[in-house]
Fold:
Amino acid sequence: MQLVIQYISMFSALVPIVFYFIYNSRFESSRWLLYYLLVSFCFEVLFLAIEKEKLSIDHHYLIHSFFVLEFCLISIYFFRQHIISKKLQSAISVVALLAYFLLLSDKDLFRFNTIGCALFSLVLIFYCIMGFKQLSQRALPIYLEKTAFFWVICGLLLFFSGSFFVYVFKAYLAASDVTLYKQLWHYVHDVLIILKCTFIAISFTRKIEK
Amino acid sequence: MTPTVFVIIGICGMIALAIGLIYFVVLHQRRVFQYHLESLQSQKEHELQIQLIAQETQEQTMSQLASELHDDVGVLLSSVKLFLAKSSAENPGLMIQSQAMLDESIQKIRNLSHRLHPATLQHLGLPVALQSLMEVVNMSGVIKTELNCEKWNGRLTEQTELSLYRIVQELFNNLIKHSRLSYLRLDLEINHELIVILISHNGSGLTNELYQKEIMKKGAIGLKNIYNRLQLLKANIHFEQKEEQLFEITITAPNQ
Structure:
């Protein structure tokens, strides 16, 4: 079952990618989501290849690169949506990135950066909440389900909220209770990835951006 | 509490918070949207009310003006005609000319009075008033007219009859001005639910798209008046080209 979920979550990124081209998503900011999905899919395939083929590559470099890229691409997406002032958002993003690298050098390059990832999640949750605030303060009200931005922030908010505790306790659980760690990773994290990809795919079918 | 339980509770709590937030935002937005729709609706109703009052006032003024012209000025002119007839012996040529001019003036005032407030509509109802309107069109000799009101019986409220009469009157004016038609037919139908007025002609006509464009433009006062009256009646109008030489205008109004 875990393996099935793992494979579904890996390939779930392909669904929104296909939707992007089928529905010919017209919003400029959607391009950054497409890059994010492509990056996610490539890294997932790489992680699986390393795990299954038992390649002698330390995948922690890849994990760090993936989290930094993920954070940057989603930040750029929110930056394009003008959810808060550009200066403030730039400052928050730069501080979060710096903190991630500082925590990385302080610990070890070959370990999962739990605090750094949790920090990224918190920042992205904050962006999602600000996105909701912006949507609910529209001058002309509209059914939120008709907008692409609503589905994107729903997917991202659910994913990062659910993953937050998984990231914080990943190192602890991996060391103390491997079974529970794997169950949490596959049943929570991977399922949330599938949900996130589904919501982003729905967002590509919408004709109104926000 | 072991850290494992803490992690599971934490994950569930965060997901529940996220779902709660999404639910709250959607619910809030729906309420705002509902409120916005209701305020738009009430604004529209208010505008319709104002239009109704404006039209009633206009009709009242026209009615007063018509009765003044008919009962007062008309009578005065007729009296002058009588006086002139008595003194025609002195200058018969001038008298005949004056009498002809007076006849023309009296007829014009009668017509104007009738157009401002059709008495036939008030006393005999919509089909008779429209019959009389079609006779006027027929009198030109250029346009052949036909009226079918077999499926019409009873009377409507004064306001509804007047609005429908004005709409048909305005449509006839537009057709005569712009359509180069030689045949005009009017079908009237009424049942428990609907009032249907069908105007068929062989001139050139509007389509629905053109009508929508015209009422959005500046000017086109006649069409805007039709639109406003239809709004008040909660009625619809549909323009359609049936054949190359057959255009139809259908007015459908609820029978309240």
The beta strands of chain B are 144-151, 183-190, 194-201, 236-243, 246-254. The helical segments of chain B are 3-86, 92-116, 119-124, 126-138, 158-178, 208-216, 221-233.
